[in-house]
Records
---
Amino acid sequence: MRELAGYLRQWHGTRTTYALATVIGVRGSAPRPVGSTMAVDTAGQVRGSLSGGCVEGAVYEECLRVLETGEAARISFGYNDEDAFAVGLTCGGEVDVFIHRVTAAQYRVIEAALDSDSPVSLVGDLDSGRIAAVRPETIIGAEFDPEVNTQARAMLDAGASGGRVVGCADRERTVFVHSFAPPPRMIIFGATDFTVALCGVGRLLGYRITVCEPRPIFADRARLPEADELVREWPDRYLAGTAVDARTVICVLTHDPKFDVPVLATALRLPVAYVGAMGSRRADRQRREQLITAGLTDAELDRLHSPIGLELGGHTPQETAVAIGAEIIAVRRGGSTQPLSTTDRPIHRTSAAG
């Protein structure tokens, strides 16, 4: 929804009532992920997309109905084998869409969800259409049972979005939680040619990128235009003092034991999504022995992806960066790392990771 921020704020400024349609569930292959939104105002203007075209017309008509009646709606679309021209997804999947009317009374809730500097979950009651913005410390909008707020905060912490059935004081409620968390962090240790290439891949994947390099000769900001932040500090000291979460990925590219071992000893004990380190197989064996000497357990060492990256056969820094990015995706999303042509798993699968 944040991609529509400019349009929605403009509508708020003119006190425009609009219908907001959100993808709340996906089964099988579908063109847009959970959380995709489309908005239709009372003049019939459309902003955003839910499917790339195949069900937009039907969603548009339903938005107009919701605008007229004020009643929230849940609708599903799937492929219709009997009638190729029926409304549905030609890719064969199914999507569930929730539509509700947004009036001036709810602008404050939507504005909270549009604030890109603040983590927030937008919670919608799929029966009543009531909405609330749940932040780590405050709630804006509708008053939900504590169980709903607890679930929303847990999902926000994980950067997850999706539908939930929550047992409340009066009855079970079906809610959709759309989490808006800051971009996940990619922390790269060492400023090498591989780092320059990995910054480009990390930015493509949506990470906020920090490069930590203690050696002044290599810590050159001009070499790293795609890094969001360049830190000149000893790696393990920096990592011990910076904020990480369950979505953070750490890539150690210094290829120097005096940097690698201390920072990996810290990284492998943190609750992060991925830890990888560059080096030959011989260097990896020696590094693991040093980490054992430093007191790391077998379980902690099992978290280390080293040598870093998937075996794609590449040689250049750019090809290596793609291999690292591919491994990060596979680890975070549970990918098989096999060619799609040799597997029969769904191409698009849901994931709780952010």
---
Amino acid sequence: MLEPLNPLWSLGGGLLIGLSAAGYLLMNGRIAGISGLAAAALGLTKGSSRRLGLGFIAGLLGGSALAMAFVRRPEFEITTSVPLLIVGGLLVGFGTRWGSGCTSGHGVCGLARLSPRSLAATGIFMGVAALTVFITRHLMGGPG
């Protein structure tokens, strides 16, 4: 088992996310939500720059690769079936489109702008996440 990361790594990561989101807003006049940028990268949105979306996604993947190379490689174990993972991914994708954004757009950028819609969306995200953990761990007897 790995030792916990130094809290300074988390602080540094949070600062980089905040600076990136602020820079994106200042330079492009748009909110840096991952679901919107992924949709732009795939050419699914009108009026959004596909190149910008691809660049942002490349930066996320490149930053992750650097962290794995220089900090540590994460350890994880998949404990569920592939069909359940696919259904979960589709539900998350549907929810981000229905909710007009994801946790990065609403939770990071929207809350920083004191957006009432983002406050409601983030509260719903977190409430559903807590309810899901409670149901799967305590009512269905899942890992925990």
---
Amino acid sequence: MKLPQWIIRIGTRIFALLPVIMVAILFGYQEKTLDQLLVYSQVFLSIALPFSIFPLIYLTSKKSVMGEFTNAKWNTILGYVVSFILTILNVKFLFDIF
């Protein structure tokens, strides 16, 4: 497709907003319900976070993958500690919500 870049960007933004608009229409623009759906989406993202953070730390600490750009040992340990704390807090938050 030979379209100007600004048309492609607008098209992708509109395509990304379609699910949000459909959900808003289905729930009748009820602010309380939409706020609750927003919270649930953030809870889902917090659950998905460890599945991306732990592999990221693991791969960036391997010399065979990163070469000279490998994380320092202290950086890797700090990353795992912070990720573990965030995961525990997210699990606690999940149990507090439900």
